[in-house]
Amino acid sequence: MSVVVTGSAGFIGRTLVETLAAAGERVIGIDRAPQPPRPGLTVLTADLLSDDDLVRAALEDAAVVYHLAGCPGVRDRGADVARRRRRDNVLAGARVLATVPRSVPVLVASSSSVYGGARGGRPSHETDPLRPVGGYARSKTALERLCAERLARGGRTTVIRPFTVAGEGQRPDMALSLWLAAAREGRPLRVLGSLDRTRDVTDVRQAARAMADLAAAGAQGAVNVGTGRGQSLRAMAAAVAEALDTEVSFTVEPAPAVEPGASLADVRRLRSLIGWSPETDLRGLVRRQAAAAHPLVEAT
């Protein structure tokens, strides 16, 4: 039997496919975006809401399903973003959860944004009340409710809450990608709020490994995937400057309401389930991300 990854052409999805294939899994990757063939990967280019027969068969016959597909972006202000979030985060998630047999594990990617940030510097725990701020976080909270309903009906369901995943292939709208691009062009780094704000930055390779380990452990319910350690925006900016061997300047702007002051994962449940939690070498991670974005330049 095969393992299915939806959103397999996306940032985390690509790394998860590589992780699973390297472990000897036969992977079916489903995504609307075309993706090149890779060893161990069968590609299905389709929309999850298109009633595609091959997609339905893959979901019904899978050994494990990792549902990573969705509409990303906390800061997206596009005219139709509310519609896209409902369609791609809620309705597509509902279709996957309804199609996969209850006996088959489904691991669903939610977001740390459902917490609304760390409160008073305390790490966010899976049992904390959810306080979603903004449309993206609310759509993920709605998806989590669907997951809870499947779990209550006896369906094997795990909700993954990743914290600020970074590394090679990171989406261009995320802070480190934006800062690397700005620093290369000699532009100031745009900072929202303050350089003292913190993020629990998680290496994409370790996030993917944690997801695979959670599936192997038979985990159920919500699980944070983070490091439990906050990295300041100042430290992240310094890592960008070091990776590109350049000086950086800043433009500080007020942070919108959807931007939490800090994010920090309580990783005790993750450790109890898989025996470890991610640790981020920030400078090494940013060097990797920079090199992957411009491999020819970095190689010279």
From TrEMBL:
The name this protein goes by in its record: Nucleoside-diphosphate-sugar epimerase
Top-rank taxon, per record: Bacteria
Source organism (scientific name): Planomonospora venezuelensis
NAD-dependent epimerase/dehydratase domain ranges (all copies): 3-226
InterPro entries, per the entry: Epimerase_deHydtase (IPR001509), Lipid_A_modif_metabolic_enz (IPR050177), NAD(P)-bd_dom_sf (IPR036291)
Region ranges (Disordered): 115-135
